[in-house]
Amino acid sequence: MIDISRKQFVLVIDSQKCFDCKACMIACKVENNVPHGFWRNWVRPTEAKGRRVQFQPGQCMQCEAPACVAACPVRATFKRSDGMVVIDPKKCIGCGNCVTGCPYGARFRNPETKLAEKCNYCEHRLLRGEEPACVTTCPTKARVFGDLNDPESKISTLIKKGRLVQVANRKINTKPRIYYTTGTIQLDWPKEPTLPGNVRLPESFWKP
Amino acid sequence: MSDTYKKGLTRRQFLQFSGIAAAATLGGPRILHALVPSSGMAIQNQVVSLSSICDMCLNKCGLIARVEKGVVKKLDPHPKFLKSRGMLCAKGNAGIKQLYDPDRLKYPLLRKGGRGEGRWQRLSWPQALDLAAEKLKIIGEKYTRCGVLFMAGSDVQSSFVNRFASVFGSYNTVSHESNCLVSRNRAYLDTFGEMPIPDTLNSKYILIAGANVFEALITPDSIDMMTAKQKGCKLVVLDPRFTKTAALANEWQAIKPGTDMAFFLAVTNVLIEEKRYDEQFVQEKTYGLEQLREHVKKYTPEWAEKECEIPAQDIRRIARELSAAAPAAMIYPGRRTSDYEDSTQIRRSMAIVNALLGNWDRPGGLTAAREIKVKAKPFDPPFYEDNPEERVDAGRSLMMFEEEGSFKHARDAVIEGKPYPVKGFFTYKVNPMATGANRRKTIEMIQKLDFMITVDIAMSDTAWMADLVLPAPSYLERMDPVTALQGSSACGCIITRDPVVPALFESKPVFWIVSELAHRLKLGQFFNFTMEEYRQEQLKDWPEAKKDLKKDSFHFKHSRIYGVYEGKIYKTLSKKIELYNQRYAEKKADPLPVYRPPQNVPQGKFRLVVGRNAYITQGSSTNNALLSELVPENEVWVHPKPARSLGITSGELVEVSSPVGKGRLKARVTAEIRPDTVYMDSGFGMLSKGLSRVYQKGASIVEILEDHNDTISGNMAMHETFVMVRKVH
To answer: Are the Cβ atoms of A129 and B672 closer than 8 angstroms?
Structure first.
């Protein structure tokens, strides 16, 4: 098993390379036993004049200021030092606040376990020294994954080069840790998070 | 299960397990229990990574299966397999659900009720094989051996079905290809003398007409085309539909269906009139420039504009751009060309443009097949004196391929009983009930038969109509022969398969089935070998390959990619690339493509075009548990303008009907299609109740399509049908 505690995982997606084959979605589904009707990742089309012009892969944004963490009443979901937002199944009570609290729709409640679930970069694969299933299987390698703490890694080079964009809702910024290349157009799929009346997101999430 | 497991463990598998350490280095360290078991049982507690070759479509991509305690848990791409560029698509990832599918055929079944009624009786293998052999024998004696038609799909074991047909004495073998791409093969063979392989990776300009590379995935072309585009290659798509390929191209022209030849004749006109063709190349290597020059004079861009509905200035510009990028420019040959009655001539017009660009045998153009010889075990089939002179479908089209035939023509011949009766039908991993246009005629054909045997993994619509259904294992459970693969600059390679897990249920590979039948029919001497022995013989000239095949299931043979034809002659009558085809002239076909405009779409009707997306392999994968979640049913694409006048909105149920049949499915109202055209995916509207997820879901293309054919190759022509669309109240 590989020690991943000192790593800083980041994902960069080049939407311009995606031709919507959905290999990533099926690979994820098989690797993580995701139940029928639910997905941990997706490919969403961007339309112009009623026609699809780009296909944008996405998944949990592993935010630096995650709305889901703020929404969790029992601290079952938290940000880990390796950059991942994780769920502790022992603590999760399955209340679903994080599901509606995520602006990306990246979470769901597993109907079998009744617990919250989302992308965890295939942690069990990372421990084996493999990449997440979606990264490995992608035909055009539209997803680049790696350790930001390794200055030699491809991901470090990409981040250093800059010219990357992030996906955020107009009103809220959760500081996502998944980046897109600049050719990515009109990322309009994040939603405003909704929460039950007694749960509130801190002021700092809301853009002025 | 444990007994089967022990039996299933061959020496070959055992060796594979001991080679695990080497395989593990490919994708980084894996959790492996290092000890090689002394008995098969110990493996049940192991986690192992075994290589194989995908079989979810025709591409044959390399994979690594993660097997935990004897169960396949995940299929990952093989990172070193160049043809697939280290990827596995959605279908490849879903292969696990072909293996573990409750809908799989489990044991031999004999029809009890009427054909297609779905009443079956379970047989033991000896009962099933005895019965099959007896029926074949009776039909052979009564109607001659050619009274049995054999149809085997795109599979590495199909060669054994054809071998069996040959020794049994029938030369009536039909492949799936005549429902797919024989017209393209015909056109390129009759121009270049062989079927070229496009070097998309290194191209600077690719014109795609009718093909849909980003949905109907072809490895490595689909991936390479995206890589080429990233490097600045221009992609231009001609398609009545805004496919994902069109969406991602630099330019899309919504060409009027059936007019592609007009476009390419006009491009030819510009290349010649403006002297933009490769003069030296054309001079040295082609035949018939003068005839072509004369022939295309009238085919100006201004003329073509009226046919194709593409502005003349765009046609002229595209021709100039092609020429500027040449020889690293191409008209992409594409694959499924079962579209029009002049499919071969349409592809000839494309092949001619390729020839004028001088892209043959050069980087970024069309490359020749590389020499990879894998031997088959030679045999000398017996001669049966009473057999008829010719194939049953002979003479129905001008130039059919002997080994492929034409499903459409063979079906007509069986229905008519002419020129002689065919009363037996053996199919393997092919689904003409879902892929042969005009399904009613396929049913009519089957009703004429005395006995039909189908070997498949699942109860396909074809199996549903059969008399005897025999269960085959999936690719993950099989030992396969060695097969050669080609794929542009990526490979020449050879591949093979060993079982990743033992075969489930009572499934048996078709090699075993035809061997058993041969022995029962006193033809055992033609199948006196095991698969292992056969493979050893195949690998006699490949001593260096054995280690790779054992470890990775593939072996690459690096050889020259370009300039292969230097100093060589072309396999045509003139020994040159034939712009003007002399054989066509002899056969009274047009030696140069002559444009005949398509029939106008009648008022109130649409032209139906068909295709598939990246989650469908025609009739064979839509029932997959994972893929059916992506596409649970098909829809008919209708442009908003006609949809408005028909009162149709997206998601509403509509009826699509033609003179031969009809179907009900949901409408998808979209600006991604021309107003005079509607589109449907293949693979739905199934009749078989054995396909629990897609039974009666959506509508079947072959129920609605009329059966026209390409007059030269006998290829099915599936875009010649006009349909009505109406709202279902």
So the answer is: no
Tell me the pairing of strands B677-681 and B606-611. Answer: parallel
B426: enclosing H helix or E strand: strand B424-428
Q: Are residues B74 and A128, on separate chains, in Cβ contact within 8 Å?
A: no
Contact B148, B425 (CB under 8 A): yes
Whole-number Å distance between alpha carbons of B659 and B148: 31
CA distance A4 to A126: 8
Among B333, B196, B361, which Cα is nearest to B264's? B333
Contacting residues of A for B245, CB less than 8 Å apart: 19
Kindly tell me the sign of the dihedral angle through the C-alpha atoms of B202, B205, B209, B211.
Answer: positive
Angle at B490 between CA B487 and CA B495, to 5 degrees: 65
- CA distances B94 to A131, A142, B623, Å, are 19, 20, 11
Q: How far is A35 from chain B (nearest CA, A)?
A: 10
Taking the model in full, what pTM does it have? 0.93
Under an 8 Å CB criterion, which residues of A touch B? Answer: 1-2, 16-17, 19-23, 25-27, 29-31, 36-37, 49-55, 128-130, 133, 136-140
What does the block give as tokens for A21? 């084959």
CB B511 within 8 A of CB B429: no
> Two tokens at B304?
């073509």
The list of chain B residues with pLDDT below 50 reads 1-42
Best B93, B615, B673 member to test A by mutation, with max A CBs in 10 Å, is B93
Condensed to tens digits (0 to 9), the pLDDT of residues B176-225 reads 999 999 999 999 999 999 999 999 999 999 999 999 999 999 999 999 99
Q: Which residues of chain A fall below pLDDT 50?
A: none
Number of Cβ within a 10 Å radius of residue B11: 8
Q: Give residue ranges of B with CB < 8 Å to any A CB.
A: 27-31, 73-77, 84-85, 87-90, 92-94, 96, 214-215, 217, 222-223, 226-227, 230, 242, 244-245, 247-248, 614-615, 625-627, 629-630, 640, 670-672
A47: closest chain B residue by CA: B247
Alpha-carbon distance of B492 to B473, in angstroms, equals: 28
What residue has token string 């600059």?
A: B489
In this structure, which long-range contacts are made by residues A48-53, counting pairs with CB atoms below 8 Å and at least 24 apart in sequence? A49/B671, A50/B640, A50/B670, A50/B671, A50/B672, A51/B242, A51/B247, A51/B670, A51/B671, A51/B672, A52/B242, A52/B244, A52/B247, A52/B672, A53/A185, A53/B247
Q: Which residues pair with B208 in a beta bridge?
A: B237
For chains A and B, count residue pairs whose Cβ atoms are closer than 8 Å: 109
- Chain A residues inside the 8 Å CB shell of B47: none
DSSP 8-state symbol, B176: G
Helix (H) or strand (E) holding A59: strand A51-59
